[in-house]
Amino acid sequence: MTLDITHARPPGLARRLAAILYDLVLLAGLLMLAAALVVIPWIELTQTDFPRGAWWFRLYLLGVIGGYFSYFWVRGGQTLGMSAWRLRLLREDGDPVRPSDALRRLGWAGLALAPAGAGLLWLLVDRDGLAWHDRRSRTRLVLLKRPERGG
Length: 151
Prior knowledge:
Layout: H1 13-46, H2 55-76, H3 80-84, E1 87-91, H4 99-113, H5 118-121, H6 132-137, E2 139-143
Antiparallel strand pairs: 1-2
Helix pairs in contact: 1-2, 2-4
């Protein structure tokens, strides 16, 4: 289902940061569970300490993070944090995000956030209120309208 996003209002920095914080709390729990699923069996089976700084373990955890965002973006355009703050991710043409779009956005978001969040802060001066990773990935966050209250 394509949405007309030509008049959709982009979310501001505060709302984006709130959704990011919400997702970080959820991700912390998910990462602890994912780590436990590897570390505990390792210790039990090998009877040795888990190797500190193992590159494959870091890659695994990055995959968990990428999987979290990709799954929710492709499934419904919203992570749990985005849902709580009424944000939805769409392609710039208004279509739902595809797996390739999600991966492209993940890559650009990592680069945009790396220099002290400069790519995210860019939305404060961008004429359309877009961050670097919005532009480069050809995706958009839109602010959803408040649901009507029945009554």
